[in-house]
Amino acid sequence: MKTALVTGVTGQDGYYLSQLLIEKGYRVIGLIRRNSRYDIQNFVADIGNNNFTIEIGDLTDLSSIINILKKYDISEFYNLAAQSHVGISFTNPISSTDINAMGVVNCLEAIRIVNEDIKFYQASSSELYGDTEEEFQNEQTPFRPRSPYGCSKLFSFAITKNYREAYDMFASNGILFNHESPRRSINFVTRKVTSTFAKINAGTLDRLEIGNLNAKRDWGYAKDYVEMMWRILNHNTPDDFVIATGEVYTVKHMIELAAKYFDYEIEWDGEGVDEIGFDSKTNKKLVVVNPDYFRPAEVEYLRGDFSKAKKILNWEPTTSFKQLIEIMCDHDKKLFS
Ligand code: NAP
Ligand code: G4F
Hints:
Layout: E1 3-7, H1 12-23, E2 27-32, H2 40-47, E3 52-56, H3 62-71, E4 76-79, H4 86-91, H5 93-114, E5 119-125, H6 148-167, E6 171-176, E7 179-180, H7 189-202, E8 208-210, E9 216-217, E10 220-221, H8 222-233, E11 240-243, E12 249-250, H9 251-261, E13 266-269, E14 276-279, E15 285-289, H10 307-313, H11 321-336
Parallel strand pairs: 1-2, 1-4, 2-3, 4-5, 5-6, 6-11, 7-10, 8-15
Antiparallel strand pairs: 9-12, 13-14, 14-15
Helix pairs in contact: 1-8, 3-5, 5-6, 7-9, 7-11, 9-11
Bound molecules: NADP nicotinamide-adenine-dinucleotide phosphate and ligand G4F.
């Protein structure tokens, strides 16, 4: 039985990846950082398998990673841990950089010190492309990050590639475009929208307060994407791959879709911070812009070209954007009714 170390297991991707690896017959060691409130027993029960073991550690603490690599015979190391919120990286730039950049050197150094044969997956991001000028972004597109998060992920992308070249390590980057699910934290825009409409529907909230309505993203389903992390590490050579859907939608369109699920027909009126979305059947104001959610520098447009992954790893996304929003609305309707 192969053993995989997964960091970030309490997050969205860590959950789906752990489940997938267990289904594939792996033993999974999940790295969790200590905190005062988390009920680890419930989390393990939720993953629901004997082949899942929790270890306490922290990406910013090299010794904790070394100790785990010495304790188990790890063959694949998936580094999903990060301060992953772009907006919060502007208010917490130093800790975000510590975790997202230095944390990755810690992982790579731990591998180099303990066992250079461990394969390493780094969770890289389409935020690397920032204010891109390309209609589609692929592995050749220049990186132009726009946030402390994007800058920290630029370093981690580069250092992963550097360890591959310098030490001949199996170290690969997945450059993943936005991917969502019912497990997405509530402060990312898709889940914020689906959970808020579920609450409006249940009568516990009046309206959605939102930031940039015109940002465009290439949104996929997290459950589809974790399969690619595994394929990237199980390809015969280490390499970097874009994972995306190739489709792009505005935040506004995503709001319309979620609203429709709950039987609201959103129409828009006004401009900029005065723009509102109202239900055309009842004239009720359901969406208002709150500039507090604007970012000091914004990434307006991301759209991935995943043709390399399609050709080499034989992969295509299977869930449409509309299906994804429905999956999230189904979940939030039950949760908040
Ligand atoms: P997420 O839900 O925010 O999960 C992040 C995880 O990292 C959590 O388990 C968190 O633990 C853990 N973590 C944070 N700081 C840590 C530290 N110092 N030591 C150990 N663990 C730490 O993120 P996600 O959406 O699953 O994304 C997974 C990875 O993919 C991240 O690296 C993200 O930047 C990257 N990525 C995500 C997307 C996307 O659209 N989802 C796209 C491209 C790249 P706590 O529970 O203790 O906070
Ligand atoms: O959902 P978001 O916060 O995701 P963002 O910034 O694109 O980052 C996510 O995807 C990256 C991959 O491209 C990951 F690397 C990263 O870890 C994370 O998972 O925001 C999406 C867009 C942005 O343009 C944002 O300004 O939605 C806009 N937005 C508008 N109103 C909002 C809001 N975002 C949030 N979080 N909250 C709002 O109220």
